[in-house]
Amino acid sequence: MSLPEPLPGLVLRYHYLWAREAEAGAESGAKARPAAVVMTITKTAETPARVFVLPITHSQPKGAVTAIEIPEPIARAAGLDQARSWIVISEFNEFNWPGFDLDAIPGRKPRSFAYGFLPPRFFAMIRDRWLKLDAERKTIAVTRND
């Protein structure tokens, strides 16, 4: 199975570690889920590529969670299932690529870690809203050093 390039907008199957799980002492996410690459810092001779991902969930956001619902045609274009889904933009994981928490998509032939890409306009809106929240210090980073 080949490793995809972690390009912004790519949706991966990843063991996302929620901030609440990290605070409780967990080192890996309880289950693999889709996560969208929102930013990548390019690999250099001295450092590996650093990837920032936003979780995608079927659970409607509650409380202080900021999330954007994924319209059904966009979910389909990105290779996701048809259940209602949200991209959470108020927290993110960052890790050295490829890390240990990528997971193959069940039932996908050929086997793959990647669902597909978010359409460019939708991705740009997600990225811009995440950057704004981050600049306002309204995001929670979970740094993974796998």
Number of domains: 1
Residues in helices, as a percent range: 10-25%
SSE topology string: EHEEEHEEEHE
Stretches with pLDDT under 50, minimum 5 residues: none
Shape, per Cα inertia axes:
globular
Structural class, from secondary structure content? alpha+beta
Tell me what the CATH architecture is. Roll
Give the total of beta strands.
8
Q: What is the makeup of the main sheet?
A: 8 strands, mixed
Structure overview:
The mean pLDDT is 95. This protein has a single domain (10-144), classed as Roll (SH3 type barrels), CATH 2.30.30.110. It is built from three helices and eight strands; from the N terminus they run E-H-E-E-E-H-E-E-E-H-E. It has helices at 19-23, 72-77, 120-135; strands spanning 10-14, 33-41, 50-57, 67-70, 85-88, 91-96, 114-117, 140-144. Helices cover 18% and strands 31% of the residues. With 146 residues, it is α+β, with helices and mostly antiparallel strands. Strands 1, 2, 3, 4, 5, 6, 7 and 8 form an eight-stranded mixed sheet that branches.
Relevant terms:
single chain; 146 residues; alpha+beta; SH3 type barrels; eight-stranded mixed sheet; 3 helices
In short:
Strands 1, 2, 3, 4, 5, 6, 7 and 8 form an eight-stranded mixed sheet that branches. With 146 residues, this protein is an alpha+beta fold. It is built from three helices and eight strands, in the order E-H-E-E-E-H-E-E-E-H-E.
